[in-house]
Specification:
single chain; about 400 residues; 14 helices; about 0% strand; globular
């Protein structure tokens, strides 16, 4: 198997475009274009994540059962993901918009889950071949690619809106092109001859460190889920900075992309755990600053984006490397393990949507219109204070967890 790390970076970028940005763009797109309620969208997103709770283990089992065909299965899954993205954004719903939203996201999330499980499981094998610090080196390439993908996806609709009447159609077409390139770049990297015995959930969850890392991942991902779900609404309604959403999102993710390889280098020198703790402190400081912002504070919010984005670079690089290193020891064929990891990562986004969007709507919040001072204060507290509390809990858990060097 060739070790072309740039191909991992490109494929990670593809998955990233289909992951976090969907929670940023899709709800607002369906609110603006089709008048779907925020509460209904939140319930659908949460219901799909509950479905993942059942399907992710099944997808991990299928991946292991038919591991000799892993490359072909990945190609089919990428095609399904690209088609679902096109149907979500480029096809006007032929049925009720909420039902269409649910159907297309189901196809998108299922293929995304399958690809994520296989991609991160393959990373365990590749990192083992790379040798010393292999997990951190691979994570630096992989997560930097993911963050660049998020950067492109976050700003693409804004950029395309300058030249296209239907920017999200252009976004979906661009995603299909990117899918084809990523499949070709990665096709030699899939290893169908991995360890034949799959480690089950029970064996993984019996390991104390694995359990603690999954819990940390769940809580630590929640602040990003909260801020991502509310980002566009915060910029538009709290800062009254309509038109700045794209540049600020780009700044946030560029900061993460630039910081990811730096965190990796620092972790190789000083240890992954101390560096991740430092990043959590940085995130708390950044989100605390957002509590005091009001209309017109675009420059100050840009500083918040820089700090929280840099902290995200550590979250996306160091924590998956820690988990992968642990799986190398207890679950060499890690498809089931990354089924759990995939579910944890996505559950936080869905939980944020189902908890926050209906809460805002019940408080009288309306996107794109003037909102009362109490409603805007609630938006600020949800966007900034909730992530601070969750990050603090994650920090304490991490400090109490013994982590082997990766």
């Amino acid at each position: 198997m060739s070790l072309q790390l740039p191909s991992f970076s490109l494929f990670a970028g593809l998955l990233a475009v289909a992951g976090l940005p969907i929670y940023i763009h899709a709800p607002k797109f369906y609110v603006d274009e089709y008048g779907v309620s925020l509460a209904a969208l939140g319930v659908v997103l949460f219901g799909l994540r509950l479905f993942d709770f059942v399907q992710d283990p099944v997808l991990g089992w299928l991946s292991n059962k038919f591991r000799a065909l892993r490359g072909q299965m990945v190609t089919v899954a990428v095609f399904l993901m690209a088609f679902s993205m096109f149907a979500l954004f480029a096809i006007e719903p032929p049925i009720n918009a909420l039902i269409w939203f649910a159907i297309t996201l189901c196809g998108l999330f299922t293929s995304f889950s399958f690809l994520t499980i296989n991609f991160y499981a393959q990373g365990v094998s590749t990192a083992t071949i790379l040798g010393g610090n292999g997990h951190l080196r691979l994570a630096a390439w992989r997560e930097t690619g993911a963050l660049i993908g998020v950067c492109l996806a976050s700003v693409a609709p804004t950029v395309l809106a300058v030249t296209l009447a239907a920017p999200f159609t252009g976004f979906a077409i661009g995603f299909a092109v990117m899918s084809s390139v990523a499949v070709l770049a990665m096709h030699r990297e899939w290893d169908g001859d991995t360890v034949s015995r799959e480690t089950g959930f029970s064996e993984i969850l019996r390991d104390a460190n694995a359990r603690r890392l999954l819990l940390i991942a769940l809580i630590n991902a929640a602040p990003v889920a909260v801020s991502s779900t509310l980002f566009l609404f915060f910029v538009e309604s709290r800062l009254l900075a309509q038109g700045w959403e794209g540049p600020l999102l780009l700044l946030f993710f560029l900061a993460a992309a630039a910081a990811a390889p730096i965190w990796s280098k620092l972790a190789q020198k000083y240890g992954a755990k101390p560096m991740l703790i430092n990043a959590m402190v940085l995130a708390i400081a950044a989100f605390s600053g957002a509590l005091f912002l009001s209309e017109g504070d675009v420059f100050l919010f840009a500083l918040v984006c820089l700090g929280s984005g840099a902290a995200l670079g550590a979250d996306m690089t160091l924590l998956p490397a820690m988990f992968a290193a642990r799986m190398e020891k207890i679950a060499p064929n890690a498809t089931q393990a990354f089924g759990l990891w995939s579910f944890v990562s996505k559950f936080t986004l869905a939980f944020a949507a189902v908890a926050l969007l209906p809460l805002l709507e019940s408080a009288g919040f309306q996107a794109g219109t003037s909102n009362s001072a109490p409603t805007l204060m609630l938006l600020t507290l949800l966007y900034a204070a909730v992530p601070c509390v969750l990050k603090l809990v994650s920090l304490v858990l991490l400090a109490l967890t013994p982590i082997e060097e990766v």
